[in-house]
């Protein structure tokens, strides 16, 4: 069973949160509410999120300040943030949103279809990254326990390598299809860059897996570089 991604919705007005839930419910992911910047930061301490929808105008800690805190934390700094605002003070205001770390800046009222499409891209990228981490973890287990497994059952390492290769191939195919979709739809530069980063990580994992094939003589560990 595939685990659902979590989407953080941050707005001080309950009716706005309800509207966002209605728009995004079709994505069939886990929607988490936060009614303030402080509540959002608390939720980010324990849960991983695919994307954050963050209202700009909030009493106390506004969206810009909340985003600054998110980007300062190592655990959360790479989570995409989409700013939502009911006001538009021109290019300077928009620039402030991007400078705070937002991947997009949308003025209300917004097109529900456009918002849902933007969020779905980041959810899909998040899911692909989760699959990639799982494959990397399996590969590390193989590297660490290869000698022991070979002594117990010579067929086990080869079988595990074949399973890893098949799983990785499935992720590679999905990532390639997603990249083509982003190109076709003229998607946001941030989404395209994230997809390219995912493909680079997939390439590195494929090389490491190929190096474990019989006859290569390589047992070097998987690089953790991003």
UniProtKB/TrEMBL annotation:
The keyword Phosphoprotein applies. The modification 4-aspartylphosphate is found at residue 55. This is Two-component system response regulator. SUPFAM superfamilies: CheY-like. It comes from the Bacteria. Keywords: Coiled coil, Phosphoprotein. The keyword Metal-binding does not apply. Residues 6-123 form the Response regulatory domain. Residues 161-188 form a coiled coil. One of its GO terms (biological process) is phosphorelay signal transduction system. The lineage of its organism: Bacteria, Bacillati, Actinomycetota, Actinomycetes, Kitasatosporales. It holds the Pfam family Response_reg. It comes from Streptomyces zinciresistens K42.
